[in-house]
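From the pipeline queue, job 12 of 40. The input is one protein chain; the requested action is below.

Action: predict structure.
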Amino acid sequence: MPPLWTRALAALGAASLLSQIAPPHSLTWLHWVAYLPMFWAIRADTPRHNRWLAFLYGTVGVGLIFTWLIHTITVFSPSIPYAGAVGVWVLFSIVFGLPFLVLWPLVHPIRRRLGVWWVLVFPALQVVLDWGQMYLFLFPYSQGVAHYRAPWLWQIVSITGVWGVTYLVFVVNTALAEAMYRRAEGRPFPTVAVAGAAGAVAAVLLFGAWRFDRIEQGLRDGESIRLAQLQSDIGMEARLTQSARAGWEEWVEMTRAVPDDVDLIVWPEGACPFNLNEAPRISDEPRKILAQLAVRKDAELVVGGGKRVRKEDPQGKVRTRVFNTVFHFDRAGRVTGHYDKIVPVPFGEYLPFGEHFPGLGHALGIGNFQAGETPVVFDSAHGRIAAPICYEAILPWLCRSFPDPDLFITVTNDAWYGDTANPHQHAMLAAIRATELGVPLVRTAYTGVSLVVEPHGVIHSETAPFSRVSRVTEVRMGTFPTIYARFGDWFVGLCALLLLGAAVRVSAARR
């Protein structure tokens, strides 16, 4: 048996591959063999060492993907020293790496009890863990998401969601691991398992090629709209040294410079620093300026702005509630609707349990935004527009709740994260929704990454972070019903049933 330090090196090497597979590196070809070093490091007769190796793998793998947390905390939470930011990053890495502490120690117990069938069961465990993490930690970073730029492979998410890609990648790795284990054991090559994994990949690619061509034909024959794509090159560090009006005027001037033959103009989250709802003692000047821009350009506007509501509580005290909101202006300059963000970002837009620690959120630089209640869809001249805000676009269950949209427009402000991997990762996680739900998606980010994603996953008009963009791009319209949009995470349920069936079989064998 190799010494523990060589196995630890293998675990570290495998963990480092996760950050290379993720954007902005996007070396997704590595994914098909990325878990083999960890399969090699895990040994059947060292369960305690396996647990430590799994902990090491999860903590380092997650930490390398999310190193940008240190920058964000250091810059925008000045009350937290650099050492504290590193501590938060380490704690985050440990917590989000815990699913791997469940996964890897079960490799040999599952294989020992199920034989070659573990090649099908072990990937199901990873799918269920990924799905559970989304609901437990509110962060859906599935292992399969990195393949969002492989159109033929990616079409399977229209049926299974991203979980199907996760399962497929793990099936291939697990089949190769079975071949590796059998060679060490002096047993025959697992031809059926490896051929089955290869056949599954081939079937997915054939389906993907068929669906891709079908949707491409539909988009080619359909209508399109002209979209003004606006993006600033000024980050939040510089922006916070300016007045709010200075930033506002930049977006106004960029909008005035847009060509007149445009259908839709989108401002990102944070571009409008003012509250745009009609309420007492709130100036309506910004709202009037935006209305004039809509009329002048003969175009609709979707603008990320603020909403402030003052309400008297039962004790007679007036309380102010603040919302992160998107407003829709029609061509006549009328506000036809607004959407309040339903899922504010924890530790960014609100402090969990902050009501028990008055003043702590403010001291840490954390906002106090309230949660909206209804997934509103705007009735536009170009169809029904759903506008999930920032982090919401990466939550599949929330995006499925918008009723029958023809277009997703997600506005965000990733300038808070600097020139790090975050804008690329955030864009990747939002881009999934287009193919999952069969609806085109427009992502407009304050400093990028902005892009357009078509229903078959083709990405165009992608911008580089911190580059000034003011141009008109085309969005091909067309919706294509998907199994995932209708039935949601049914594939996760199937994986859970597979795990349950395996557990029943093992229990029966023991009896």
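Job complete. The first strand starts at residue 224 and ends at 231.
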